[in-house]
Structures are given as structure tokens and as C-alpha cells.
Amino acid sequence: MFGKLLQHSFRIFILSAKSQARSSARVRRYGKMSKPTIYLTRKLNSAAMKRLEEQCVVELWEGPDPVPRETLLSNIANKKGLCCLLTDRIDQEVLDAGTDLKVISTMSVGFDHLDLPAIRAKNIRIGYTPGVLKDATAELTMCLILATGRRLMEASKEAATGGWSSWSPFWMCGMGLLGKTVGVVGAGAVGSEVMRRVKPFRPKDLLYVNRTPRPDLEEELGAKQVELDELLATSDYVVACTSLNSDTQEMFNEEAFSKMKKTAIFVNSARGGVVDQDALIKALENETIGAAGLDVTTPEPLPLSSPLFKMKNCVILPHIGSATYTTRYAMAMLAVENLICGLKGEEMPEELKAK
Ligand code: DGY
Fold it and tell me: What is the CATH code for 134-160+171-316?
């Protein structure tokens, strides 16, 4: 009798533990309550999680997709810190819900998803992750330049679907980099690294547009600063590496595409928002420009119905510029350190200061 009772209580215990585990599968608490409580919008690698849990009580969204808006809004209350991604829009509504927020740390170099004036009005410190992703992003930009110029995706598809009948003198010819003019818009960390990687391919000219001159790049690479119109008119490759802000929003529009060479290859590894995408679609359809290679689009993910997916002269990647393990681990660790230092009132490794 006693044995049966014990068995029964044990079953109830297991069932309730299971149901608890199910209900907390998406949102879990970590660490001890004496530490500052923070909200993390995506689980990070184990080293970054360990570091975070040493210093903070961590509540997090464990789903594979971005945290749903309502979940973020209801979980941000009473949190001192927020560690977020570029997929999380941090605006007035989030700030109103997160009345205790002291630090926001984004695991990204881009910060167009953050409402800076609203965040600054609340004296919330902001951390971000510049520097650590410039090499990976420049490398991926090179992949796009070469894949689009040499028609890699198109050629690979032909090979796999029976279009490869024989070696043929002019079949699948594209544009290389040798002797071509490459124009980089935005000579910041990523743009400079792109130029450094283009140089060994022996282009004719390396042009750049930037708010400030870069005498270092001019000396090191022979790069030349020009006005945007000149870059658009003379470049065989126009490469967008500029951050998204009110000055650069849709700067690649109908007018800009009409100024480019008919054979120009447009590459964007910055943000979809720097392009008027409808104008780009038209420019590709009407052969105003030759081809485009995009790692970023509007919106993301790009709907499968987008005409861009149907175009042979358009290579689309799913925003993977910084996607090497080493880089993403470094970004995660930097985001965590920014958050921890910010919460302690210390200097952050990378704080986004008001300009
Ligand atoms: C960033 O960090 O802003 C990049 O776009 C991620 O690849």
C-alpha cells in the first residue's frame, strides 16, 4: 500500500516537473538573484553564456527565431540590462516597458535598429561590436564581388541542371577584377578591408567616397577619394559599405543607378536600407546596370516572391557577412563584456557614444 502511494506521488512529481520544463522551454532563468537581472534575446555560445551568468541573472529567449515583440515587451520589465541583436527593434515602446534599463548591448556593429535619441534621452548606455567583424564582412564582400562578377551561382546551376553541353568560347563569361575600376562607398572599417582585399586582384583604379579623406588608404593602396557621381559613373564595381543613417537611406536610388555604367556590378554588404530596392529591381530588369550581389535586403528575410530571386544577374545571400564562427564568438563575447562593464558603471570595451 505504502509502496503504491510512493509510486503514485513519484509519478505526479515527474509529470509536474515535465510540464514545468515544457512551459519554461523558451524562457529560462540562470544565475543567482543578487546579481543584476538582464534580458538576452538569443542564446549565445557557451563561453559567452558562462561569462554572462557569472555576473548577471540571465533571462533569455531560447527560440531559434527572433524574440516575439510581446515577449520582449513583457520580459524587459525590471531588467537592468538588455543584450540584443540587429533583429530586435529597440524603440520607445521597449524603453517604456523596460523602466529599469541602464545598459543596452547589441551584438552588431550596425545600430539602425536602435532608436538612439530615445535611448539617450533615458541616459541608457549603449554597447556595440565594431572592429571584430570587419575582416569576415570584407571577406564575404569579396565573395559577392567575385560571385556576381564571374556569375558563379548561375554557372553552378547550369552545371547541375544540364546547361553545360560543352566548353564553349564565350559561354558564362563575366567580369573579373583585373584592370577594372572598383568604387567603394564608405571607407570605414569594412570598406577599407574590402579595398585591401581588392588590391591584389590588380584593379585599374580603386576609388572611394567617404565623409573624411583617408590618406592612409591613399598611401597604402593608391586609393583615390572622389565625389559620388564620379564613382558611380566610372566604376565597374560599385560596392556599398556605408552604415545606414538619414544621409545614406536609399542613396542607391533610380538616379544613382542611372549614373552607373550599363555593365556595372552593384554589391551591397552594408544594409538593405541604403538601397531603394524597387529602383534596383527596375535597374536590373531594364539593364540599366549589369548585375547585383546582395548580402542585405529590405526586408530580411527577403520574401520568396521577390523578383530579385528570379533574376540570373542577381546573387542574394542571407545577411551572412560576419558569419564565421570566430567572428560571431568574438562579437558575442564583446557584447557580453560591454553589458557587464556598463552595468558595473565601468568603461565599456566598445561604447556607442553620442556624436
Ligand atoms: C552588424 O553587426 O551590423 C552586421 O550587419 C552583422 O553581420
Answer: 3.40.50.720
What gap in Å lies between CA 280 and CA 254, rounded to an integer? 7
**Angle, vertex CA 321, rays to CA 320 and CA 326, nearest 5:** 90
Interval 235-252: pLDDT, tens: 999 999 999 999 999 999
Is 108's C-beta closer than 6 angstroms to any atom of ligand 1? Answer: yes
Looking at 319, 327, 333, 350, which residue is catalytic? Answer: 319
Give 82's strand partners: 39, 104
The residue whose CA is least distant from atom 3 of ligand 1 is: 110
The answer to whether the CB of 144 falls within 8 A of the CB of 295 is yes
Non-local CB neighbours of 220 within 8 Å, separated by 6+ positions = 196
Judge: domain 27-130+327-343, CATH 3.30.70.1070.
no
The yes-or-no verdict on residue 26 having pLDDT over 90 is no
Tell me, what's the pLDDT at 25?
39
| pLDDT band with cut points at 50, 70 and 90 for residue 21 | very low
Query: Among 85, 105, 108, which is best to mutate for testing ligand 1, by the most ligand atoms less than 8 A from CB?
Result: 108
Give the separation between CA 220 and CA 222, rounded to whole angstroms.
Answer: 6
Which three cell numbers mark 336? Answer: 557580453
Other residues' Cβ atoms within 10 Å of the Cβ of residue 345: 9
> Could you state, in order of their start, the residue ranges of all structural domains in the chain?
27-130+327-343, 134-160+171-316
Per DSSP, 324 falls in state: S
Say if residues 72 and 94 touch (Cβ distance below 8 Å).
yes
Taking only the tens place, the pLDDT of each residue in 44-53 is 999 999 999 9
CA of 107 to the centre of ligand 1 (A): 8
- For residue 77, the CA-to-ligand 1 centroid distance in Å is 27
